[in-house]
Design brief:
269 residues, alpha/beta, Rossmann fold, eight-stranded mixed beta sheet, 11 helices, globular, binds NADP nicotinamide-adenine-dinucleotide phosphate
Protein backbone atom coordinates (compact mmCIF):
# COMPACT_ATOMS: atom_id res chain seq x y z
CA UNK A 1 0.00 0.00 0.00
CA UNK A 2 1.02 3.61 -0.40
CA UNK A 3 0.37 5.45 2.88
CA UNK A 4 0.47 9.23 3.29
CA UNK A 5 1.09 10.74 6.72
CA UNK A 6 0.22 14.36 7.55
CA UNK A 7 2.20 15.26 10.67
CA UNK A 8 5.72 14.11 11.48
CA UNK A 9 5.77 14.56 15.24
CA UNK A 10 5.57 11.99 18.05
CA UNK A 11 2.91 9.79 16.45
CA UNK A 12 3.56 10.47 12.75
CA UNK A 13 7.23 9.52 12.99
CA UNK A 14 6.50 6.25 14.85
CA UNK A 15 3.78 5.27 12.36
CA UNK A 16 6.13 6.02 9.46
CA UNK A 17 8.65 3.61 10.94
CA UNK A 18 6.05 0.88 11.62
CA UNK A 19 4.37 1.11 8.21
CA UNK A 20 7.75 1.14 6.45
CA UNK A 21 8.87 -1.95 8.38
CA UNK A 22 5.62 -3.68 7.39
CA UNK A 23 6.56 -3.18 3.73
CA UNK A 24 4.39 -0.19 2.83
CA UNK A 25 5.50 2.81 0.80
CA UNK A 26 5.27 5.84 3.10
CA UNK A 27 5.19 9.54 2.22
CA UNK A 28 5.17 12.08 5.03
CA UNK A 29 4.63 15.84 5.32
CA UNK A 30 4.61 18.51 7.99
CA UNK A 31 3.75 22.20 7.89
CA UNK A 32 7.32 23.40 7.26
CA UNK A 33 8.26 21.49 4.14
CA UNK A 34 10.15 18.28 3.19
CA UNK A 35 13.56 19.89 3.69
CA UNK A 36 12.87 19.80 7.45
CA UNK A 37 12.24 16.03 7.35
CA UNK A 38 15.50 14.81 5.82
CA UNK A 39 16.66 13.10 9.05
CA UNK A 40 13.32 11.41 9.66
CA UNK A 41 13.14 10.23 6.06
CA UNK A 42 16.63 8.74 6.29
CA UNK A 43 15.84 7.01 9.57
CA UNK A 44 12.41 5.60 8.61
CA UNK A 45 12.74 5.03 4.87
CA UNK A 46 9.71 7.27 4.29
CA UNK A 47 9.79 9.88 1.54
CA UNK A 48 9.39 13.46 2.74
CA UNK A 49 7.00 15.41 0.54
CA UNK A 50 5.15 18.71 0.60
CA UNK A 51 1.65 18.91 2.06
CA UNK A 52 0.35 19.43 -1.50
CA UNK A 53 1.74 16.02 -2.52
CA UNK A 54 1.05 13.91 0.58
CA UNK A 55 -2.40 12.66 -0.47
CA UNK A 56 -1.38 11.96 -4.06
CA UNK A 57 -2.55 8.47 -5.16
CA UNK A 58 -2.39 7.08 -1.62
CA UNK A 59 -4.33 3.98 -0.53
CA UNK A 60 -4.60 5.32 3.01
CA UNK A 61 -3.94 8.70 4.63
CA UNK A 62 -3.09 9.34 8.29
CA UNK A 63 -3.83 12.70 9.85
CA UNK A 64 -1.75 13.16 12.99
CA UNK A 65 -1.60 16.84 13.88
CA UNK A 66 -2.95 18.87 16.83
CA UNK A 67 -6.70 19.48 16.43
CA UNK A 68 -6.25 23.24 16.41
CA UNK A 69 -4.28 22.77 13.13
CA UNK A 70 -7.00 20.83 11.30
CA UNK A 71 -8.83 23.96 10.05
CA UNK A 72 -5.47 25.29 8.78
CA UNK A 73 -4.93 22.40 6.34
CA UNK A 74 -5.22 23.24 2.63
CA UNK A 75 -8.91 23.21 1.61
CA UNK A 76 -8.20 20.90 -1.33
CA UNK A 77 -5.98 18.44 0.60
CA UNK A 78 -8.27 15.45 -0.03
CA UNK A 79 -10.00 16.73 -3.15
CA UNK A 80 -8.62 13.99 -5.38
CA UNK A 81 -8.92 11.17 -2.86
CA UNK A 82 -11.63 8.61 -3.81
CA UNK A 83 -14.51 8.61 -1.27
CA UNK A 84 -13.78 5.19 0.26
CA UNK A 85 -10.06 5.78 0.83
CA UNK A 86 -9.30 5.28 4.54
CA UNK A 87 -8.32 8.49 6.31
CA UNK A 88 -7.11 7.77 9.85
CA UNK A 89 -7.56 10.47 12.47
CA UNK A 90 -5.28 10.10 15.52
CA UNK A 91 -6.40 13.43 16.98
CA UNK A 92 -7.41 14.26 20.54
CA UNK A 93 -8.99 17.47 21.74
CA UNK A 94 -7.19 19.20 24.59
CA UNK A 95 -8.58 22.71 25.20
CA UNK A 96 -5.39 23.55 27.12
CA UNK A 97 -3.41 22.97 23.90
CA UNK A 98 -5.97 23.50 21.13
CA UNK A 99 -8.00 26.38 22.58
CA UNK A 100 -11.77 26.04 22.80
CA UNK A 101 -13.57 24.28 19.96
CA UNK A 102 -17.18 25.14 20.77
CA UNK A 103 -18.79 22.37 18.74
CA UNK A 104 -16.79 19.70 20.56
CA UNK A 105 -17.45 21.40 23.90
CA UNK A 106 -21.16 21.10 23.08
CA UNK A 107 -20.73 17.33 22.67
CA UNK A 108 -19.76 16.80 19.02
CA UNK A 109 -17.60 13.73 18.61
CA UNK A 110 -14.02 14.82 17.91
CA UNK A 111 -13.48 12.80 14.74
CA UNK A 112 -16.89 13.81 13.36
CA UNK A 113 -15.76 17.42 13.67
CA UNK A 114 -12.49 16.60 11.89
CA UNK A 115 -14.27 14.63 9.15
CA UNK A 116 -16.62 17.53 8.52
CA UNK A 117 -13.71 19.93 8.06
CA UNK A 118 -11.89 17.49 5.77
CA UNK A 119 -15.14 16.71 3.92
CA UNK A 120 -14.15 13.04 4.06
CA UNK A 121 -15.30 10.27 6.39
CA UNK A 122 -12.53 9.42 8.88
CA UNK A 123 -11.50 6.42 10.94
CA UNK A 124 -10.56 7.07 14.57
CA UNK A 125 -7.48 5.04 15.52
CA UNK A 126 -4.14 5.36 17.32
CA UNK A 127 -5.46 8.24 19.44
CA UNK A 128 -5.62 6.24 22.68
CA UNK A 129 -2.05 4.99 22.85
CA UNK A 130 0.96 7.06 23.87
CA UNK A 131 3.72 7.57 21.31
CA UNK A 132 5.95 5.72 23.77
CA UNK A 133 3.77 2.58 23.77
CA UNK A 134 3.17 2.79 20.03
CA UNK A 135 6.94 2.76 19.51
CA UNK A 136 7.83 0.13 22.11
CA UNK A 137 4.93 -2.29 22.62
CA UNK A 138 4.44 -3.75 19.18
CA UNK A 139 4.27 -7.58 19.45
CA UNK A 140 3.71 -10.50 17.07
CA UNK A 141 0.17 -11.87 16.68
CA UNK A 142 -0.72 -14.23 19.51
CA UNK A 143 1.86 -12.84 21.97
CA UNK A 144 0.69 -12.56 25.58
CA UNK A 145 -0.09 -8.97 26.60
CA UNK A 146 -0.30 -7.72 23.01
CA UNK A 147 -1.91 -4.27 23.25
CA UNK A 148 -5.37 -3.96 21.67
CA UNK A 149 -6.50 -0.78 19.95
CA UNK A 150 -10.02 0.25 18.90
CA UNK A 151 -10.94 1.31 15.38
CA UNK A 152 -14.19 3.18 14.69
CA UNK A 153 -15.57 4.59 11.45
CA UNK A 154 -18.59 4.62 9.19
CA UNK A 155 -17.05 3.16 6.04
CA UNK A 156 -16.92 -0.61 6.42
CA UNK A 157 -14.15 -1.09 3.84
CA UNK A 158 -11.98 1.68 5.32
CA UNK A 159 -12.44 0.25 8.81
CA UNK A 160 -11.33 -3.21 7.64
CA UNK A 161 -8.21 -1.75 6.02
CA UNK A 162 -7.24 0.03 9.24
CA UNK A 163 -7.95 -3.06 11.37
CA UNK A 164 -5.59 -4.98 9.10
CA UNK A 165 -2.87 -2.32 9.33
CA UNK A 166 -2.98 -2.40 13.13
CA UNK A 167 -2.44 -6.15 13.15
CA UNK A 168 0.45 -5.85 10.68
CA UNK A 169 2.33 -3.38 12.88
CA UNK A 170 1.97 -5.38 16.10
CA UNK A 171 -1.31 -4.54 17.81
CA UNK A 172 -4.57 -6.47 18.27
CA UNK A 173 -7.27 -4.68 16.27
CA UNK A 174 -10.70 -4.23 17.84
CA UNK A 175 -13.70 -3.18 15.76
CA UNK A 176 -15.34 -0.46 17.87
CA UNK A 177 -18.16 0.22 15.41
CA UNK A 178 -19.24 3.46 13.79
CA UNK A 179 -17.66 6.86 14.38
CA UNK A 180 -20.57 7.69 16.71
CA UNK A 181 -19.04 5.17 19.15
CA UNK A 182 -15.56 6.71 19.09
CA UNK A 183 -16.27 8.99 22.09
CA UNK A 184 -15.75 5.83 24.15
CA UNK A 185 -11.97 6.18 23.78
CA UNK A 186 -11.56 9.95 23.66
CA UNK A 187 -9.47 11.57 26.45
CA UNK A 188 -10.89 11.16 29.95
CA UNK A 189 -12.32 7.67 29.37
CA UNK A 190 -11.05 4.38 30.87
CA UNK A 191 -9.84 3.16 27.43
CA UNK A 192 -7.62 6.21 26.96
CA UNK A 193 -4.00 5.04 26.96
CA UNK A 194 -3.95 2.08 29.42
CA UNK A 195 -2.51 -0.38 26.87
CA UNK A 196 -5.22 -3.03 27.43
CA UNK A 197 -5.29 -6.52 25.98
CA UNK A 198 -8.06 -7.67 23.65
CA UNK A 199 -9.78 -9.27 26.65
CA UNK A 200 -9.69 -6.04 28.66
CA UNK A 201 -10.56 -3.45 26.01
CA UNK A 202 -14.31 -4.11 25.44
CA UNK A 203 -15.09 -3.72 29.17
CA UNK A 204 -13.20 -0.42 29.30
CA UNK A 205 -15.13 0.91 26.29
CA UNK A 206 -18.43 -0.12 27.93
CA UNK A 207 -17.56 1.71 31.16
CA UNK A 208 -16.96 5.06 29.43
CA UNK A 209 -19.04 7.94 30.81
CA UNK A 210 -19.67 10.63 28.23
CA UNK A 211 -20.61 13.33 30.72
CA UNK A 212 -17.56 12.81 32.93
CA UNK A 213 -14.89 12.43 30.21
CA UNK A 214 -14.24 16.16 29.49
CA UNK A 215 -13.77 16.90 33.21
CA UNK A 216 -11.42 13.93 33.64
CA UNK A 217 -9.49 15.05 30.53
CA UNK A 218 -9.03 18.62 31.75
CA UNK A 219 -8.01 17.53 35.23
CA UNK A 220 -5.39 15.12 33.82
CA UNK A 221 -4.11 17.76 31.37
CA UNK A 222 -3.66 20.32 34.15
CA UNK A 223 -1.78 17.79 36.24
CA UNK A 224 0.48 16.77 33.35
CA UNK A 225 1.23 20.40 32.50
CA UNK A 226 2.81 20.67 35.95
CA UNK A 227 5.11 17.68 35.33
CA UNK A 228 5.87 17.81 31.58
CA UNK A 229 8.87 15.47 31.87
CA UNK A 230 7.06 12.71 33.75
CA UNK A 231 8.17 9.42 32.11
CA UNK A 232 5.58 8.11 29.61
CA UNK A 233 5.96 4.54 30.90
CA UNK A 234 4.78 5.81 34.30
CA UNK A 235 1.89 7.68 32.66
CA UNK A 236 0.71 4.39 31.22
CA UNK A 237 0.86 2.82 34.70
CA UNK A 238 -1.31 5.67 36.00
CA UNK A 239 -3.75 5.23 33.11
CA UNK A 240 -4.00 1.50 33.85
CA UNK A 241 -4.65 2.16 37.51
CA UNK A 242 -7.34 4.73 36.84
CA UNK A 243 -8.94 2.29 34.37
CA UNK A 244 -9.16 -0.25 37.19
CA UNK A 245 -6.38 -2.45 35.78
CA UNK A 246 -3.29 -3.42 37.80
CA UNK A 247 -4.74 -2.35 41.14
CA UNK A 248 -2.67 -5.05 42.88
CA UNK A 249 0.53 -4.12 41.06
CA UNK A 250 3.01 -2.37 43.40
CA UNK A 251 4.73 -0.66 40.41
CA UNK A 252 1.44 1.05 39.57
CA UNK A 253 1.21 2.49 43.10
CA UNK A 254 4.87 3.47 42.91
CA UNK A 255 3.94 5.54 39.83
CA UNK A 256 1.28 7.33 41.92
CA UNK A 257 3.90 8.03 44.58
CA UNK A 258 6.35 9.31 41.93
CA UNK A 259 3.67 11.57 40.47
CA UNK A 260 3.03 12.98 43.94
CA UNK A 261 6.74 13.72 44.38
CA UNK A 262 6.95 15.25 40.89
CA UNK A 263 3.92 17.44 41.60
CA UNK A 264 5.72 18.72 44.67
CA UNK A 265 8.49 19.82 42.34
CA UNK A 266 11.11 17.17 42.94
CA UNK A 267 11.06 14.66 40.07
CA UNK A 268 13.58 11.92 40.86
CA UNK A 269 14.69 9.45 38.20
N1 LIG B 1 1.90 12.33 21.57
C1 LIG B 1 1.15 11.29 21.87
O1 LIG B 1 1.55 10.43 22.69
C2 LIG B 1 -0.21 11.12 21.21
C3 LIG B 1 -0.86 9.88 21.36
C4 LIG B 1 -2.07 9.66 20.70
C5 LIG B 1 -2.64 10.67 19.95
N2 LIG B 1 -2.02 11.87 19.86
C6 LIG B 1 -2.70 12.92 19.06
O2 LIG B 1 -2.19 12.85 17.73
C7 LIG B 1 -2.06 14.18 17.20
C8 LIG B 1 -0.57 14.42 16.91
O3 LIG B 1 0.13 14.33 18.11
P1 LIG B 1 1.74 14.41 18.17
O4 LIG B 1 2.09 14.27 19.61
O5 LIG B 1 2.33 13.49 17.17
O6 LIG B 1 1.96 15.91 17.72
P2 LIG B 1 3.35 16.70 17.55
O7 LIG B 1 4.49 15.88 18.04
O8 LIG B 1 3.14 18.06 18.11
O9 LIG B 1 3.49 16.81 15.96
C9 LIG B 1 2.56 17.51 15.21
C10 LIG B 1 2.93 17.41 13.77
O10 LIG B 1 1.85 18.01 13.03
C11 LIG B 1 2.43 18.86 12.04
N3 LIG B 1 1.49 19.91 11.70
C12 LIG B 1 0.91 20.83 12.49
N4 LIG B 1 0.10 21.63 11.78
C13 LIG B 1 0.19 21.21 10.49
C14 LIG B 1 -0.39 21.64 9.28
N5 LIG B 1 -1.25 22.67 9.24
N6 LIG B 1 -0.05 21.00 8.14
C15 LIG B 1 0.80 19.95 8.18
N7 LIG B 1 1.38 19.48 9.30
C16 LIG B 1 1.08 20.12 10.44
C17 LIG B 1 3.65 19.42 12.72
O11 LIG B 1 4.52 19.92 11.70
P3 LIG B 1 5.44 21.19 12.01
O12 LIG B 1 6.35 20.78 13.10
O13 LIG B 1 6.11 21.45 10.70
O14 LIG B 1 4.47 22.30 12.41
C18 LIG B 1 4.20 18.16 13.39
O15 LIG B 1 4.94 17.39 12.49
C19 LIG B 1 -2.62 15.11 18.26
O16 LIG B 1 -3.98 15.38 18.02
C20 LIG B 1 -2.46 14.33 19.55
O17 LIG B 1 -3.40 14.71 20.55
C21 LIG B 1 -0.81 12.11 20.45
Amino acid sequence: MKIGIVGAGNIGSVLARHFGSAGHVVVIANSRGPETLVGLARETGATAVSIAEVADKVDCLVLTIPMKSVPLLPRNLLARLPAGTPVIDTGNYYPLRDGRIEEIDRGRIESEWTGQILRHSVIKAFNNITAYSLANKSLPKGAANRVALPVAGDDQYARQVVLGLLDQIGFDPYDAGTLAESWRYQPGTPAYCPDPTLTQLPGLLQRADRTKAPGNRDQAAKMMAKVPDFPPSELVRLARLSAGLDIFNPRAWLAVFRLGIAMLGGVRR
